[in-house]
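Hello support,

Our group uses your service weekly, and this is the first time we've seen a run hang past the timeout. The protein is non-specific serine/threonine protein kinase. I'm not sure whether the cause is the sequence or the server load. Input pasted verbatim:
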Amino acid sequence: MCDTPSRTCGDHSHTCSRTSGHKPAILNLLEEARVWSSNASAISNDVTAILMDTGNLVLSSSDSVDDLNKALWQSFNEPTDTFLPGMTVYMNVRAGETRVFTSWTSDNDPSLGRYSMGVDPRGSPQIVIWDGLNRHWRSGHWNGLIFTGVPTMRAIYLYGFKLFNEGNGSLYFTYTSSNSSDPLRFRIGWDGNEAQLWWDDGKKEWRIMQLQPANECEVYNKCGNFGKCNVMDSTICSCMKGFVPKNVDQWDSGNWSGGCVRKTQLQCGTNGEEDGFVKIEGVKLPDYADLMVAQDIGDCGEKCSKNCSCHAYTFAIGISCMIWRGDLVDIQHFEEGGSDLYVRLASSDLSK
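Update from on-call engineer: The timeout came from a worker crash unrelated to the input. Re-ran successfully.
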């Protein structure tokens, strides 16, 4: 790597070198400009660079090459576009901090692109792909075994995700492949697609195992607020029971971004009218959930019904009671799997 003199990379106009502060760096020979350098503090010349079998490039003092905890710098702590087994994805729930992977600008330009991928720590953690500051895709909430918005995880994942709580609001994800002879990796593409790839040793190439988003309904909030997306329907977007399109003309023309609005405003005890809940089965749960302590689904529902700002709830195994106080965003219907969502409606809309 960068300790090898004059080793070229990319379009051959770049070379690996060291800065005056002895940080590894990549220089642009044509423009005589620094393209990249590590964030390691200035270090001595007595440094060894080791490329581990895991793919982790580690810079260590010569007397501590076997101790990662004493490493001066390691690439696993500076993610680019690829998530490898053994890497950790940190987040701090209290500080709202998370480590992200960033796409390339194009298929052959490794400069920082428009898409990033990381863990959103709010509520129950989930993986999110951002297009700039906007959400592009999300995995659904982590329940201790899978991300609930990726029901195929049970069948196709050959590795084990684990979530560790370090206290003080700090968490991190990692994963381990179940078959070290059949390596697996994740990559956030320049086009915003997250690819899960496995190494075909026979063909000596990386092959795509799955892409996210895999279809139109997996694009974030495809049908707008209070809309529901089903890729199997001829018209993929529909309003949930008790809701109608916000802009009928746009909706009928195939522009569903405006979403849906309630037919009848919630009563919440006004004039003696009580609201109720309708069960929506087999869906990707909406974004921006709040967590509450509850014994079971009944207890969760009772707490929601007593709170006029609670618009929906569910009790998810491995997560507990989840409630939604604002608009219901990014709902997708699954043919198999998914969760049940209880949506608050005015009593007059329950029987329609």
